[in-house]
Amino acid sequence: MTDMAAEREITVGRIDYANIWPIFDRFEECLAETGVRNVRVAKGVPATLNRALSEGTIDIAAISSFAYGQRFDEYELLPELSVSADGEVMSVLLFLKRPLEEALRGRIAVTTASATSVNLLRIVMQGRYGRCPELIAMEPDLEAMLERADGALLIGDPAIRASWRPGPGIEVLDAARMWKEWTGLGMTFAVFAVRREAAREAPETVRRVYEALAESKRRALADIEGLSRKAAGRFGGGEDYWERYFRTLRYGFGPQEQEGLSYYYDCAFRMGLLERRVAPATWPDHAAARVNE
């Protein structure tokens, strides 16, 4: 077995949104139980972590699914970990001040935080409705966005807070539900990826990190009520809201999630949003295959 003490430091990127809590809430506690000392955690919004993983300043991260699709040949997917939805996500929301039919001919302001949801909107609008409105990138401020556009796409915590008080006359559409109604499939918004050189240079540390993430998920999902109390204390809202939220999201990455993500990638490729067809590689299977070549 590799001497873990001799391996280099590994940096793990954590999306600083409530939707990732069940995987990260107990992570550092679980990691400490393994005796690992050469791991640090860096927090950020999806766009920040996407860039950091691509630049190699972090080694493992929960990143936007679209960002993985852009650089899939540089990463390996950690199994059974994702942020997915099957019919409702509750935190990727389209706020409309005019009927959708009118907004399709107008302008929609979109968040700058993640390309996955923006391109999901493009795919659904074009594929389901036959046209896509003009999209303008803005900071996630619903009031400011709706001053300049007919609708606004928000993700993560800003979307959740805005959904509690969207304002009079505002229609709120769930992007994952729009995708489900059109395709019949679920949608994976974030995956967990490790840079290939990190998997090669620090295999034992990567294994311990993965095990800690998986155990954190198991413990958190076994105590949804406790997680919901914590979320209500930090973000506001009722515990019942957060319990429904955490029970609605899916945190595995099985065949159903993979099928939905594969179709998303196919759509993105056909529309010219991705330059190549995506061919995922999963750790540690792909790493083991390289060793045996």
UniProtKB/TrEMBL annotation:
InterPro entries listed in its UniProt record: Menaquinone_biosynth (IPR003773), MqnA (IPR030868)
Protein name: Chorismate dehydratase
Function per UniProt: Catalyzes the dehydration of chorismate into 3-[(1-carboxyvinyl)oxy]benzoate, a step in the biosynthesis of menaquinone (MK, vitamin K2).
The protein's enzyme class: lyase
Similarity comment: family membership: Belongs to the MqnA/MqnD family. MqnA subfamily.
KW Lyase (keyword) present: yes
Gene: txxe 2282
Pathway linked to the protein: Quinol/quinone metabolism; menaquinone biosynthesis
Substrates-to-products reaction catalysed: chorismate = 3-[(1-carboxyvinyl)-oxy]benzoate + H2O
HAMAP family: MqnA (MF_00995)
Lineage of source species: Bacteria, Bacillati, Bacillota, Bacilli, Bacillales
Keywords, comma-separated and alphabetical: Lyase, Menaquinone biosynthesis
EC number: 4.2.1.151
